[in-house]
């Protein structure tokens, strides 16, 4: 696409219904309709509930994004959409909607990998980051380290072998009787606690390679709560939250530090909802300062799932002309 092309992007991979309009690296609008309240009673995202809400919200969200950007569908030069990975029902709502919008105007369609979107959020204004850089993506569904040497792709250096970092935080929050999503709740409670009060394992730090694992940490919290009993767990919730959060952050930073030895990097970037975590940002900032590296932090609204990051990735993707994309399907797994 031309560098200033107007792109309408849709993102419905999980529980946020998102639409955005960009022109090159400029974000003209970025509308996010969160379903957190709808899923809070379940302590996690229910795929069928998410899909139904996407069906109800996708039209109004697209209209709001166009209005915020001050454009109409006639101004769009391409449509972009998350094609995977994610919840298959949720993805299909976005893909079907994007195909309908594009086909009605014979616009090209650009299918985007959700994880590439998190990386590409760093290409947006203000102060877009240019490759090469190392990117840590940590969210409710994914945790990975990416070597970014070009705009259009990334090299996977390591990823979680089980739970994602955000998923582990959500489960810990539910165990401690906190709200959903769990990451912000754990961070809030942890400010009142002592991260050294309990010894939680920082998994995989002695293992070779750059993969992550958080299931053992989650199990350790379950056993610790059982040992303490209900009353003592309630009394020590802040210490438990602080220790758990410190173990999650410790593993993420340890693997990031190891990854810095995999190449000549000039910068480190963070992506995904967990990238909004204050202690993680502070720890990575200290690491970058010690190494003399630039640290790129995108705005919080670009950390969580959003469509502006999808449009950013689409700038460097391959537009598919009408009608070739009518057979495009969503893919739940990478």
Describe what this molecule looks like in 3D.
By secondary structure, this protein is of the alpha/beta class. It contains eleven helices and ten strands. Strands 3-2-1-4-5 form a five-stranded mixed β-sheet, with helices on both faces. The longest helix has 23 residues, at 47-69. The chain is globular, with a radius of gyration of 20 Å.
Contiguous helical run count:
11
- Average predicted confidence as pLDDT: 94
Oligomer: single chain
What does the radius of gyration come to?
20 Å
The helical percent reads: 40-55%
Number of strands: 10
Q: β content, as a range?
A: 15-25%
**Strand arrangement in the largest pleated sheet:** 3-2-1-4-5
* End-to-end distance: 25 Å
SSE order, as H and E? EEEHHEHEHEEEHHHHEHEHH
Largest sheet at a glance? 5 strands, mixed
Structure class: alpha/beta
Uncertain spans: none
Shape: globular
Descriptive tags:
334 residues, alpha/beta, five-stranded mixed β-sheet, 19% strand, 42% helix
Layout: helices, strands, pairs:
Elements: E1 6-11, E2 16-23, E3 26-34, H1 36-40, H2 47-69, E4 78-84, H3 88-104, E5 109-113, H4 114-120, E6 133-138, E7 143-150, E8 153-159, H5 165-175, H6 182-190, H7 215-235, H8 237-259, E9 267-271, H9 278-291, E10 294-296, H10 300-303, H11 308-314
Parallel strand pairs: 1-4, 4-5, 6-9, 9-10
Antiparallel strand pairs: 1-2, 2-3, 6-7, 7-8
